[in-house]
Amino acid sequence: MGETQIRHELYQFIDEADERLLKLLYAVAKEYKQEDFTKPGEPLSEEALKKRILNAKSRIKSGQFTTHEDLEKEFEIW
User: What pTM does this model have?
Assistant: First the structure.
Protein backbone atom coordinates (compact mmCIF):
# COMPACT_ATOMS: atom_id res chain seq x y z
CA MET A 1 0.00 0.00 0.00
CA GLY A 2 1.46 3.34 -1.04
CA GLU A 3 1.71 6.52 0.98
CA THR A 4 -1.16 8.17 -0.90
CA GLN A 5 -3.52 5.27 -0.27
CA ILE A 6 -2.52 5.13 3.41
CA ARG A 7 -3.24 8.85 3.79
CA HIS A 8 -6.61 8.45 2.09
CA GLU A 9 -7.60 5.55 4.34
CA LEU A 10 -6.40 7.37 7.46
CA TYR A 11 -8.53 10.38 6.50
CA GLN A 12 -11.51 8.04 6.19
CA PHE A 13 -10.80 6.50 9.59
CA ILE A 14 -10.58 9.95 11.14
CA ASP A 15 -13.80 11.13 9.50
CA GLU A 16 -15.67 8.11 10.88
CA ALA A 17 -13.86 7.87 14.24
CA ASP A 18 -15.44 8.04 17.63
CA GLU A 19 -13.85 10.08 20.41
CA ARG A 20 -11.78 7.14 21.70
CA LEU A 21 -10.11 6.49 18.35
CA LEU A 22 -9.50 10.20 17.80
CA LYS A 23 -7.78 10.49 21.19
CA LEU A 24 -5.68 7.41 20.48
CA LEU A 25 -4.58 8.64 17.04
CA TYR A 26 -3.85 12.08 18.46
CA ALA A 27 -1.71 10.64 21.26
CA VAL A 28 0.27 8.48 18.83
CA ALA A 29 0.83 11.37 16.41
CA LYS A 30 1.80 13.76 19.19
CA GLU A 31 4.28 11.28 20.69
CA TYR A 32 5.75 10.53 17.26
CA LYS A 33 6.22 14.22 16.55
CA GLN A 34 8.04 14.76 19.87
CA GLU A 35 10.19 11.64 19.67
CA ASP A 36 13.87 12.25 19.12
CA PHE A 37 15.59 9.34 17.42
CA THR A 38 19.05 10.82 17.85
CA LYS A 39 21.30 10.09 20.78
CA PRO A 40 24.38 11.95 21.79
CA GLY A 41 27.64 10.08 21.40
CA GLU A 42 28.89 7.51 18.96
CA PRO A 43 26.70 5.79 16.37
CA LEU A 44 25.74 2.20 17.07
CA SER A 45 28.31 -0.16 15.60
CA GLU A 46 27.35 -3.15 13.49
CA GLU A 47 28.67 -5.44 16.23
CA ALA A 48 26.60 -3.71 18.92
CA LEU A 49 23.51 -3.86 16.72
CA LYS A 50 23.98 -7.59 16.11
CA LYS A 51 24.38 -8.12 19.86
CA ARG A 52 21.10 -6.28 20.51
CA ILE A 53 19.34 -8.39 17.90
CA LEU A 54 20.64 -11.63 19.42
CA ASN A 55 19.56 -10.48 22.89
CA ALA A 56 16.09 -9.60 21.58
CA LYS A 57 15.76 -12.99 19.88
CA SER A 58 16.80 -14.67 23.11
CA ARG A 59 14.15 -12.77 25.09
CA ILE A 60 11.51 -13.76 22.54
CA LYS A 61 12.49 -17.44 22.71
CA SER A 62 12.28 -17.35 26.51
CA GLY A 63 8.81 -15.80 26.38
CA GLN A 64 9.79 -12.33 27.56
CA PHE A 65 7.57 -10.31 25.24
CA THR A 66 4.11 -8.77 25.05
CA THR A 67 1.62 -10.25 22.61
CA HIS A 68 -0.55 -8.19 20.31
CA GLU A 69 -3.61 -9.39 22.19
CA ASP A 70 -2.15 -8.23 25.53
CA LEU A 71 -1.42 -4.81 24.05
CA GLU A 72 -4.99 -4.54 22.81
CA LYS A 73 -6.24 -5.34 26.32
CA GLU A 74 -4.00 -2.59 27.73
CA PHE A 75 -5.40 -0.11 25.18
CA GLU A 76 -8.93 -0.94 26.34
CA ILE A 77 -7.97 0.08 29.88
CA TRP A 78 -6.76 3.49 28.72
Answer: 0.42
At residue 1, the pLDDT reads 87
Domain boundaries of the chain, sorted by first residue: 1-37, 45-78
Q: Nearest Cα to 77, choosing from 8, 9, 20?
A: 20
Beta carbons of 17 and 25 less than 8 angstroms apart: yes
At 73, is the secondary structure helix, strand, or coil? helix
DSSP assignment string, 2-70: -HHHHHHHHHHHHHH--HHHHHHHHHHHHHHHH-----SSSPPPHHHHHHHHHHHHHHHHTT-S--HHH
Tell me the pLDDT tens digit for each residue of 12-38: 999 999 999 999 998 888 888 766 666
